[in-house]
Design brief:
The chain is an alpha/beta fold. The chain has 9 helices and 8 strands. The strands form 2 sheets. Strands 5-4-1-7 form a 4-stranded mixed sheet, with no helix packed on it. It has a 4-stranded mixed sheet with strand order 2-8-3-6, covered by helices on one side. The longest helix is centred in the middle third of the chain and has 16 residues. This is Tc1-like transposase DDE domain-containing protein. InterPro entries: Homeodomain-like_sf, RNaseH_sf, Tc1-like_DDE_dom, Transposase_5, WH-like_DNA-bd_sf.
Amino acid sequence: MSQVLRERAIGMLTAGMSTRAVARELNVHFSTISRLQRRFREFGSTSNRPHNRKPRVTTPAQDLHIQRLHLQDRLRPATRTAVATIGLHNQRTRVWRRVGERFADVNVVDRVAHGGSWVQVWTDVCYGQRTQVHFIDGILNAQRFRDEILRPIFMPFTHDHHLMLQHDNARPHVARICTQFLEAKNIPVLAWPAYSPDMSPIEHVWDALDRRVRQCVPVPSNIQQLCTAIEEDWTNIPQPDHLCAKEMCCTA
C-alpha cells in the first residue's frame, strides 16, 4: 500500500470503522489492514521500518533509462551464439491418468540410456539474417572454434554489417586466441554474466526447432536422419522467430 492509503486506513480505523469495512472501502485484503493496524499500535507510525537489506544499485531515474533502452531495442544489430540440447529420447510426454496408475504399463515410455549418440551444431542468426547449420565432429576447442567457425563462417556473415556478437562464456568462446581474433577484426562482444543460460533471449528459437524435430514423420532414428531433419527444420522456421544465434548440441 502507498503511504497515502496507509494514513487513510489508519484514519478510518481511528474513526471507529472495522478492519473489514476499511478493507472493502480501500479494495485491499482485510489481513493487510489488520497488519497495518497492529504495526501502528506497536510503533506509532505507518512508515516502513528500517531494514538491513542491501541498498538499491540503481536509482529510479536509472531504472527508467534502462526501460527506455529496452524499448528502443538497441541490441537489434546483435548476432549471438549459445548452446542447447535436443534429444530424441527425452520427449516431453504428457500423460492423463487416474490416481494409482502412475506405473501402469500404458503410462510408461521406454528410454535410451544416457540419451543416445549426439551431434554438435553451430548456427549464427541476427535480426533478419541467419547462416546454415554447421555440424561439428568431435570436441570443439578454442582453435577449432576460431578456424572452423569464426574465420570461415562468422566473418563472411558479418561482412559489411556493423554487428555485435553475443555468446555465452563457454571455454572456446572466451579463450585468448578467440578474443584476440575478434578484437583484431573489430568485432564488439556483448559481455554476458556467468552461469546465466536462462537469461538468453533466444531460448524460444531452439525450443521451436526442438519441437519441429520431434514432430518429424518418420522420427529420425540415426545421426544422418537427425542431421537432415535439423537442416530442413532450421530452414523452415520463419525468420522473424530467429532473433539471435546459437551453438547447440543435438542428441539422437
